[in-house]
Design a protein that fits this description.
It contains eleven helices and nine strands. The strands form two sheets. Strands 3-2-1-7-8-9 form a six-stranded parallel sheet, sandwiched between helices. The chain has a three-stranded antiparallel sheet with strand order 5-4-6. Strand 4 and strand 5 form a beta hairpin. With about 250 residues, it is an alpha/beta fold. The chain is elongated. The protein folds into two domains: about 150 residues, Rossmann fold, CATH 3.40.50; about 90 residues, SIR2/SIRT2 'Small Domain'.
Length: about 250
């Protein structure tokens, strides 16, 4: 990791793009892995906005553990490493494809959730908001197909996660683009770089003359443009945690 560490030391503006791989170190299944969400029956309907409006129990049944079990999950080594990098002045911000809120739990201050977040839910009819904790309390002890509903109008609460058929959160994605454009070093961590438009963020760094480092177990479409691709996220975290403020 010497080449990466030297680049981090010299960089005035470093950005990170994180994907599901960094959260598998916390015991959270990759959506597309053999035990992931998309291995379930009717998986294509779980995050489909038309199906949610037709039958929200499909989402709540499918995501009961994956999303609402997140309250019991803790940040992993990569989350902690990025918080450390921020603390020593070496990280400009994080764009994440993840919806697990673990960067915030780790204490990172600048996190742009480009696929949305379950931190807030909103009623599909009147727009009333409910927090993640409030929805977890509604679900507690209920059957798998239970749907949390608005106390005012009775419509279903939907998490502020971007479903298929919905636009990405405009502000978060615009800020993520700005982060990538100004970055001298972009760290692509635990992401296959195949899900667009988020996968296009490292290209913005490259177009601006910045350097790309990829840490991912599997090859990605941008490997040939990266300075290096490393396979081991735990090794990356250990190397970054050893950095000290200049």
């Amino acid at each position: 990791m010497k080449q990466l560490i030297e680049a981090l030391k010299k960089s005035r503006r470093t950005a990170a793009l994180t994907g599901a791989g960094i959260s598998t170190l916390c015991g959270i299944p990759d959506f597309r892995g053999p035990q992931g969400l998309y291995a379930q029956p009717d998986a294509e309907r779980i995050f489909d906005i038309d199906w949610f409006d037709r039958d929200p129990s499909i989402y709540y049944r499918g995501c009961r553990e994956l999303v609402y079990g997140l309250k019991d999950r803790s940040p992993g080594p990569v989350h902690k490493a990025l918080k450390h990098l921020e603390d020593i002045g070496g990280l400009d911000g994080i764009a994440t494809q993840n919806i697990d809120m673990l960067h915030q739990k780790a204490g990172s201050s600048t996190v742009w959730e480009v696929h949305g977040s379950p931190l807030l839910h909103h009623c599909r009819n009147c727009g009333r908001a409910a927090t993640f904790d409030e929805v977890c309390a509604m679900l507690d002890g209920k059957e798998a197909a239970f749907v949390p509903r608005c106390p005012v109008c009775g419509a279903a609460f939907k998490p502020d996660i971007t479903f298929f058929g919905e636009a990405l959160p405009e502000k978060a994605f615009a800020e993520a683009q700005a982060l990538a454009i100004r970055a001298e070093v972009m760290l692509a961590l635990g992401t296959s770089l195949t899900v667009f438009p988020a996968a296009g963020l490292p290209r913005l760094t490259l177009q601006g003359g910045g350097k790309l480092f990829i840490v991912n177990a599997q090859p990605t479409p941008l490997d040939r443009f990266a300075v290096r691709r490393y396979p081991d996220l735990a090794e990356f975290a250990e190397a970054v945690l050893s950095l000290r403020q200049a």
